[in-house]
Structure formats: C-alpha cells, structure tokens
Specification:
This protein is an alpha+beta fold. The protein has two domains: 264 residues, outer membrane lipoprotein receptor (LolB), chain A (Clam); 91 residues, TATA-Binding Protein (2-Layer Sandwich), CATH 3.30.310. The strands form two sheets. Strands 7-8-9-10-11-1-2-3-4-5-6-12 form a twelve-stranded mixed β-sheet, with helices on one face. It has a seven-stranded antiparallel β-sheet with strand order 13-14-15-19-18-17-16. Strand 9 and strand 10 form a beta hairpin.
C-alpha cells in the first residue's frame, strides 16, 4: 500500500482517537434491477470519471456500533467531540446541496433543531439553531484558489473539514456517501478483494454494488459495500458490516437525489436575529492535494511494518498535529499517537466517559468496527482491530 493510499487511516481513525470524530445507516438498497454487467475495474473507472458537479438530496445514516447514545449539547458536553460521537450512534438525516467546487450546503436535521454548514466561495458559515450561534469563516483568495484546485470534480461537504488550510476550521460532522466512498476506495490494495454484487436501486436510481472484502482475519470489518449510480458513476450509498454482526454496523445513503442545479439562494446565509456570531479569518495557506479514487494496482506494494505518517497528513483535526506512526498493514493497521496527544477536556468529560471503559493503564473505546486505546500517559492507539491488538502495539513501544 503506497503512502498516498495510507490517507484513509488518519482520515478514518485519528479523528476518533483524538475526539471520537470518525464517522464510520442502515439504509438498505432497493430491489434488484437489471443492468449490463460490469467488472469491478469498470465500476471503479466510472467513479473516477464522474462529472457530477451539482446536486441536491436527502441523506440518511444509521449506526449500530454498540455505543450509548450521547447528547451533543448540554452540561458536560465537549463541542466537537460529543457531537462527533453522536454520529456514531442512532439515526440521522441531512439535506445536501452542491453547485460546483465552492458552493455547498449541508443541513443536519436534529429533533426540533438544525445544524448548517454553508460554503459559498470565500465565505463559510456554521450555524446551530438550538444554540442560535453561528461561526463565520473568511477564506483568503490564495487559500481559496488552492482549495478549489485540490477538490475532485464532485465536491462534498464531508471533504472540506479534513483538508481545510487552517486548524480553526470546524468539522462538518455528517459526511456524504461519495466522500466516505472515496476514503474507503483510497485504501483498496492487494489486502482487499474487490467484487461486484447484484445490481439494485438507491433513491430510485439503479446502482452497481462494489464489495470490498478484507483478506485479513484480524480486522473488525467484514465488508464494505459501495453503491454506484449506473448513469453517472456517483457513489450513492456506503454500507459497512462488522465481523460476526448480522445487521450492518453502519450505512449512509441518499434517500432522495436530484442532479439539477440548486437554487443559488440556498448558498446565501444570514444569521437569524439574536444569533451569536463569531468571526474568523483563515490564513492564506495551501492545502494538501486530494485525488480521485483510481483503479487499484493488484500488486500494489505494502507499507513498511512501522511507517510514519507525514506531519501534514497526521490528523485532520485542529491545532498542532502530533506525529503518528502506523504499524501493521492494510485493514490490520494500528495508528499510534505520542504521549500528550489525548486532550484532557476530552478524556475527563463526564458524558464521553460513558463510552470509555477502564483498562490496564488507561481507558478504551470499543465498537463493532473501531477500537481506541487512550493510555494514562496520553498515548493513543486506534485501529479497525480488536482492543487486544492495540494493547499489544502499546506494549511493544
């Protein structure tokens, strides 16, 4: 697995290790449909060539990872961390609007409330109706140009948070199917068997279904299914199954989809009267280049047993980014962060402690798909592997 293909590891695991912010529903695909047969390579090529630049739709997510449901706000809640953990439990719905690389709106629909992320050129708004608070970020022109050039042809809100040019950029929480599919497809290598399942339908559109099966017997992941629109190549749904679990552990899919250009007014945001507004200006700074998923080489080289992730890729979170190391290969990989990586306000939070269990030398989060070990000295280990593998990795250091 090349270093470029290692990016799924920090993208999916480090946010969880640092702030339980990995967002790994079950929206089942519809009845089987008749489509011309295609190989896995042909479907991967369709995804790489998709030219969808405008859409609107509804997304539904359900997660059954074995975590307790935690509130995202209220006494004791940690902004960001608890909110991210919330998206690892229960069901959530959102509406998404996209018009080109730099016009995106994501509306996360909570019970009796709404959270919005609105990106319109150099203006980014994040709004929480429950708190009636908004953050307005201004992106300078150099950063804006770098960001636009780095985006794939199908921009999605979930892609902005990990690679925005400044640490102050908050996460957008609930991702979209195409953003998540891109993360998993970037990990495809010789340790993954890629097959084609029976065609079906999602959001009333016929789809091809790619199935990623880890060849490893030690990972918690049994399979990942990506539903790909038969006409456009746009990923419309992602389903992740955990080993030994009958129902999907996680799924995310469109329930409605319109490929016409949304109304331009949707990308203009004005805070409601009385809203608390925080202004931030992001510094002009280039962002890492993002690439389209491509057909994996069957003989792609595996990483060294102990690989170091470059500091600019180490974590998509905020602030300084501690250098991480990766041990193992592919689906069995374990990410390690050095002492002091775990934030005190995160580990001591009374709400989040409900999800952490005491273990020898620290605390741990165990789910059906991901395990995280937070040691008393602040070291963090995370992986799509059982807790015992993390403990072994920690003992070896």
């Amino acid at each position: 697995m090349t270093r470029a293909r290692q990016r799924w590891l920090p993208a999916l695991l480090l946010p969880l290790a640092l702030a339980i912010a990995v967002v790994l529903g079950s929206v089942q695909a519809g009845a089987s449909v008749s489509l011309p047969p295609k190989s896995a390579e042909e479907i991967l090529a369709m995804i790489a060539r998709t030219q969808v630049r405008a859409l609107s739709g509804a997304i539904e997510q359900k997660a059954e990872l074995g975590l307790p449901e935690l509130p995202a706000s209220g006494p004791g809640a940690v902004p960001g961390a608890a909110s991210a953990l919330e998206f690892l439990t229960g069901s959530h719905t959102a509406r998404v609007y996209v018009d080109g690389p730099l016009k995106v709106r994501l509306q996360i629909l909570d019970q009796m409330a709404e959270r919005d992320v609105v990106i319109n050129g150099g203006d980014v708004w994040l709004y929480n109706s429950k708190q009636n608070s908004a953050t307005h970020l201004t992106v300078p022109e150099p950063s804006l140009a770098d960001l636009e050039n780095s985006l794939p042809t199908r921009p999605t809100p979930g892609m902005f948070a990990p690679d925005m040019p400044a640490p102050e950029m908050p996460p957008t929480d609930m991702p979209t199917p195409e953003a998540m599919a891109g993360r998993f497809l970037a990990a495809v290598d010789a340790a993954t068997e890629v097959t084609v399942a029976e065609a079906s339908s999602v959001a009333g559109r016929s789809v091809y279904s790619l199935v990623l099966n880890p060849r490893s017997t030690e990972t918690l992941v049994d399979s990942v299914t990506i539903d790909v629109d038969s006409q456009t190549g746009l990923p419309l749904g992602v389903e992740v199954r955990a080993a030994g679990q009958a129902e999907p552990a996680y799924s995310l899919a469109y329930t409605q989809l319109d490929l016409s250009t949304p109304d331009a007014a949707l990308f203009d945001f004005t805070p409601p009267p009385g809203a608390t507004v925080t202004e931030q200006v992001l510094p002009a700074k280039p962002v890492p280049t993002m690439t389209q998923p491509s057909t994996p080489a069957p003989d792609a080289p595996a990483p060294a047993p102990d690989a170091t992730i470059p500091e600019d890729q180490a974590a998509p979170g905020h602030g300084s980014r501690p250098r991480a190391t990766v041990t193992g290969q592919g689906w069995d990989s374990v990410i390690a962060l050095p002492a002091g990586a775990a934030q005190t306000e995160f580990t001591s939070n009374p709400l989040l402690s409900q999800a952490l269990q005491p273990v020898d030398g620290g605390r741990a989060l165990t789910t059906s798909l991901v395990s995280v070990l937070i040691l008393d000295d602040g070291r963090v280990f995370a992986g799509m592997v059982p807790l015992e593998r993390l403990q072994s990795a920690a003992a070896a250091q």
